[in-house]
Amino acid sequence: MRVPQRLSPKVLLIDPVRMLPSLLLPLVGVLFVGGFSARSYGYAAAGVIAAVVYAIIRWATFTYEIIGDRLETKRSLISRSVRTIPLERIRGVDVSTPPMHRLLGLTVLKIDTGASGDAEEAKLAGITRVEAERLKAVLLRRTAEPETHVHDAATPSGPKERSIIGVPRRWLLYGPLSGAYLLTPFAFVGGAVGLAFQWGDELGFSQDTAWSAGEWLWGHPYLLLAVAVLLVLAMPFAGGLMYAIFNWDFQLKRRDGYLVAERGLINRRSVSLESQRVRGYEIVDGLAERWARVARVWAIVTGLGDSETRGQLLPDVPRQVAFQVTRDAIGPYQAALRRHPPVARQRRLFRAVFPWFALAVVSAVAVWLTGSMLWWILLVLTLLLAGVGVPLGLDRYASLGHGYDGVRLAVRSGSLRRSQAVVERRAVVGWRLRQTWFQRRAGVLTLIAGVGAGKGGYSAIDVSKAQAVDFPAEVTPEWLAPFLNPTDS
């Protein structure tokens, strides 16, 4: 007989604690309103007990089991809810270990079928590590044999595993170059200010006091400037620290037909991507990263939700390492990128220079009319930014490119965030031509390769009309042949 399985009972030690943030404010309010009397403490205790009872009921009414070729999860708290997930539709399994789960030897297993966008299809938020690994092996099989009991099935033999790369810890120093988490100090300050206004009365000072403190700081601009400078100086350190916590001990492996990426210090996370569904990769770098010759890599996978997080193959690593890993894990791109027409360079220079030049003209007129020092400062700044726009525009043009090596096509664009997408030909499901009014005037177009994976489409920006016709004809000649070489009926 089948016996539905439940989450580990240890999760009952986690759920009440996880509910505390939402209960804290009401409980504190009850205590203050009741004047910290015995009755108010009784009400607060009743609230805590109710939260524990609710967690027990949720645990007792949630079950999961593998029945034949499908996974079923059931919840019957108030109404009965049954979710069925065919194993063949599962695109990936994400196993993570948040801090409290790690202390109790538990994990969180998330299942992605690609049918629910960025959200997971199902989540088992409290199973043992052994059960998580066993379920992961079963759920990721291409064909599932019928199982009558989730614990009666024989434990699968050890998976074949091969390490592709382990990111050295010294490479975590590249983290601040990516710009990720750089605003962490400002986020902490903003959160602290928000808590002060929200819980000020409970913490012993009113909103009027907070406003008075803000007005005092506003009246001392040099102190406010010093705080801002300190926050800016703290950006690379705080950002680098958060980056290291999230990408600690990054490992990329190949295991039984899957690419497995593991990372994290506090919350250890393991993401499995089926190799047969990987259609390419995207290499991203910014200005600072290009200066340091490092890049990040994401996989382009069919049916993958939350691809910006779950599809990450590499954090910041040296560019030659990034290309070597993508060549070994997915496949090489072996052709040079083709340049776009010179008019594309003119468009990028115009966009990078003209707005600041126009503002400089306005500032010059204001200086001539008023002679104000503020307008002089604005005039100098806009002229400097217009000058910086020249190399920026040239770099944006140099970053443009597209190509095809007979197996994979590539498109590249961007400067502050340059992205090169390499996609297998078989992943292309259509072509789209887009042209704005300004592009029509310039005689260029944006060619979009529709792809049933990743972002759904990758653009070659500002290509010539000849390139817009020749490139699709080269990549998918069988699609365009009836139109380019019509035959008499």
TrEMBL record:
Transmembrane as UniProt keyword: yes
Residue intervals passing through the bilayer: 20-38, 44-67, 171-197, 222-246, 349-369, 375-394
Domain YdbS-like PH positions: 59-137, 408-469
DNA damage found in the keyword field: no
Keyword vocabulary terms for this entry: Membrane, Transmembrane, Transmembrane helix
Top-level taxon of the source organism: Bacteria
Annotated PANTHER family: UPF0699 TRANSMEMBRANE PROTEIN YDBS, UPF0699 TRANSMEMBRANE PROTEIN YDBT
Protein name: PH domain-containing protein
